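The data are quoted verbatim for reference:
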Amino acid sequence: MISIFVTIQVKDGYAEQFTEASFGDSQGSVRDETGCYRFDILKNAEDPNKFHLYEVYENEAALETHRNAPHYKKWSSTVEPWLDGDRERVMMTTVFPSDQGWKDQKPCLLNW
């Protein structure tokens, strides 16, 4: 499995809108993408305008599927004007849980 950690700074006054718009992308990812096993939206405790996304995908092809998904494209075009600077990305490979552990957890992500 691969994971990506994205840090996003939004302009003052857009944190709530960013959060709302991000739900569609995160929910669509775990619900509609078979290769997406995690999509967390995290708000920085020290800066209310800084967000972190933690995502886990089966492989590079699954990540590419995500980047071409309608919910991602809608999210990206919606939030782009609210961003304060570039998104910072860190690519990783998962160590724990095991690949099967990620797969076993996925059904629980659909209980919002």
